[in-house]
Design brief:
704 residues, Collagenase (Catalytic Domain), Jelly Rolls, 40 strands
Length: 704
């Protein structure tokens, strides 16, 4: 094999049409894998007949006969200058495999496992290589037996890389240019050659006619890949073929610029045809069968931990992992982490990280442990075994600090091994909290969260409108009755901070809000009809540093406290809303153009069950007891913990109640609680005037 030296990137040409402008790209640096006539003849005699038999057994594409993927062991070689400078970062290689190579080869029943540590070769001789002779010499000096050896060099003779076919054995390697290692398709392309895929424009077997009439004996020998004239330089930025080449008596080509084995733009190459998938599988079972080798994965030890980033998912089979470098400690799990497993690492960003194996890609009883510190000096952060609603899979959530390295150990319960898909997601807040801008943001809203469980809001929203809400909020959806409590740790003097319960995040939603500015003023807001007027009331309450909202049916209650232990009543509002509400923290400014900053701490949400007691609406008229009696309100209805009776007009029972009670029952009032069948449940006696009556119903059976 002689690698082909290709033209470097040329000037871009613009192809302008009447309707749109498309960029027609000049030829990119491409692959230098070449099939000689001698190798082509040998392949047709020895290999192609066997592959055709394989295709007849799998006419609709290859379906693996076993559940487990074939583990292809990979040895990464990174060539640097003799002084140790230069060379590609190994993280770039790992990410290219995880994000672009592995997904393409799963259909062929292949996975790729990095064996041993990365081999760093400090050699000016091989930092840039010129042709196959130098590549062959390099592989002879550094190859590891029975694995896929892939070399990353600075410049492989001006190409993006090349690979050896099975017919080249015992010469056995792939070489990749550092500059092409992360373009989404070059590594996958060269591995395709390694498994005996040819270019879609291959001519060593003859020119394939565009009508496919000779597809089995010319071109790439596959009949589900369209004939290709070599699309290099003839693909636009929308991945459309722009050439006009013909063959076989003027037949026009209609190639597929998305095929990975073409010379299309690197970002356009995303597809293997079913017969290409079958060819890869066939070669893995025949010409490359020696690759089915159980090597110890490189991240078997903490020092070889694979780096992860937010939003990434990686697949791994820990069947060949060992317990050589297990953490040997109880860290959030029922065992001490002595089982075999693999290591990952991720740098903290200040966000909340969720690491999970809870997905269809995990097929064994997995466990997770997370540590901070460094290998050899680890400190437990969290761990999990059998996450809620995830069966035997694991999931952890932990707050991170900027710049801190976290180490993740993935292993199995009681020595269980198998395949897992490990995902990492990052969010500003722990689930299920999310930021939400309601109405106008004014000068802008910003949000943050710290590992000491404090929530921060910088609110540019100005909430002075009587018809709509303008808030910066941190919410979660909660269904049923609830008790929501928070400490307003600080709020600047130009704003308010507190709690909300809303039917939606629309600015005219039905809602209730309870706010403090840490003076002696509590602000109570409500809207009982969608897009209706907003009611705003202010109450003098001493030291309202803690706030609480509770929902019981259609009633929302507000409370305040100075210490978070003893809470006092502020107000209540009857607001029929959906079963599931958006509840949480909110803040706003009173001064346009000036942001208000709030800090919330000690946030808790409880509830979510059915009401403990449901009072029939005809037990007490919600507006008045009788024509000659006082106007009384009874709320909430239904109730869970406490039923409250108050004067409808002023929320108190004062002189009117006293005079009425004296008039009717001689100074004593009897209150009777009955169920829907009229059966007496409890009786209370009032002997004098009171502001309000709270009737504890928490001891009653649900559903009364």
């Amino acid at each position: 094999m002689k690698p082909i030296t290709l033209i470097t990137l040329l000037t871009l040409f613009l192809a302008i049409t009447a309707n749109a402008q498309q960029i027609r790209h000049a030829p990119e640096r491409n692959c230098a894998t070449q099939l000689s006539p001698e190798a082509a003849n040998l392949y047709m005699q020895r290999t192609e007949p066997r592959f055709q038999d394989f295709l007849r057994q799998h006419p609709n594409g290859y379906t693996p006969g076993r559940v487990a993927l074939l583990q292809v062991p990979v040895q990464v070689h990174i060539v640097r200058r003799s002084d140790g400078t230069g060379g590609i970062d190994e993280t770039t290689v790992w990410n290219e495999f995880e994000n672009w190579v592995k997904p393409y080869y799963t259909a062929s029943n292949l996975d790729f496992v990095f064996c041993n540590a990365t081999d760093f070769i400090n050699s000016d001789t091989y930092y840039n290589i010129s042709g196959d002779a130098e590549g062959d010499a390099m592989s002879a000096a550094y190859n590891v037996a029975n694995v896929l050896n892939i070399y990353f060099v600075n410049d492989p003779d001006g190409a993006c890389g090349w690979a050896r076919f099975t017919g080249d054995l015992p010469v056995d390697y792939i070489v990749i240019a550092n500059g092409c290692a992360d373009n989404q398709s070059t590594v996958a392309h060269e591995i395709g050659h390694y498994f005996d895929l040819f270019h879609t424009h291959e001519t060593a077997f003859g020119v394939e006619c565009p009508d496919g009439s000779n597809c089995g004996s010319a071109g790439d020998l596959l009949c589900d890949t369209p004939a290709d004239p070599d699309v290099s330089g003839n693909v636009d930025n929308s991945c459309n073929y722009t050439g006009n080449a013909t063959a076989c008596g003027g037949q026009a080509y209609n190639p597929d610029p998305t095929n990975i084995m073409s010379y299309s733009l690197k970002a356009c190459r995303t597809f293997f045809s079913p017969q290409q998938v079958s060819k890869i599988a066939f070669t893995s079972l025949t010409g490359r069968s020696y690759l089915d080798y159980n090597c110890t994965p490189v991240n078997d030890v903490c020092s070889g931990a694979f780096p992860l980033v937010c939003g990434q998912s990686v697949s791994v089979d820990i069947s060949s992992a060992t317990a050589t470098d297990n953490p040997n400690t109880f860290c959030g799990t029922s065992s001490n982490g002595t089982e075999a497993g693999v290591w990952y690492t991720i740098e903290g960003t200040g966000d909340v990280f969720t690491v999970s194996t809870c997905n269809a890609g995990t097929d064994y009883d997995s466990k997770l442990q997370v540590f901070s510190g460094s290998c050899g000096s680890l400190s437990c952060v969290t761990g999990n075994d059998d996450f809620s609603d995830c069966g035997l899979s694991a999931q952890v959530e932990f707050c991170t600090e900027v710049g801190v390295d976290y180490y993740i150990y993935l292993y199995g319960f009681a020595g269980n091994v198998g395949r897992a898909e490990l995902s990492v997601s990052c969010a500003t807040f722990p689930a299920p909290w999310e930021s939400a801008n309601i109405g106008s943001v004014g000068t802008g809203n910003a949000y943050d969260y710290t590992c000491d469980e404090r929530y921060y809001i910088s609110a540019g929203s100005v909430n002075n409108s009587s018809s709509s809400d303008n808030l910066a909020s941190i919410l979660q959806q909660f269904c049923g009755d609830f008790e929501l409590t928070v400490e307003v740790e600080s709020i600047t003097s130009n704003g308010f901070a507190g709690l909300v319960a809303r039917e939606s995040t629309a600015s005219g939603s039905k809602m209730v809000g309870l706010y403090s500015n840490r003076t002696n003023i509590v602000r109570w807001e409500s809207r009982t009809a969608t897009n209706g007027a907003k009611n705003i009331n202010f109450y003098q309450k001493p030291l309202p540093y803690w706030l609480r909202l509770t929902r019981q049916g259609s009633w929302i209650y507000g409370y305040y406290s100075y210490n978070g232990v003893n809470f006092s009543f502020v107000s209540a509002q009857y607001v029929p809303m959906s079963n599931c509400l958006d509840i949480g923290m909110a803040a706003f400014s009173n001064i346009p153009g000036v942001k208000a900053s709030a800090v919330f701490h000690n946030v808790s949400v409880n509830g979510g069950g059915a009401p403990l007691v449901v009072l029939p609406q005809n037990t007490v008229d919600p507006s008045e007891v009788g024509k000659t009696g006082p106007s009384i309100r009874l709320f909430p209805n239904p109730a869970r913990d406490v039923v409250t009776l108050t004067r409808a007009s002023e929320l108190l029972l004062g002189e009117d109640f006293n005079s009425y009670s004296n008039q009717k029952v001689g100074g004593t009032v009897l209150l009777r609680l009955r169920n829907e069948l009229g059966q007496l449940i409890e009786t209370r006696q009032l002997d004098g005037p009171i502001e309000r009556l709270e009737w504890d119903v928490s001891n009653l059976n649900p559903g009364l």
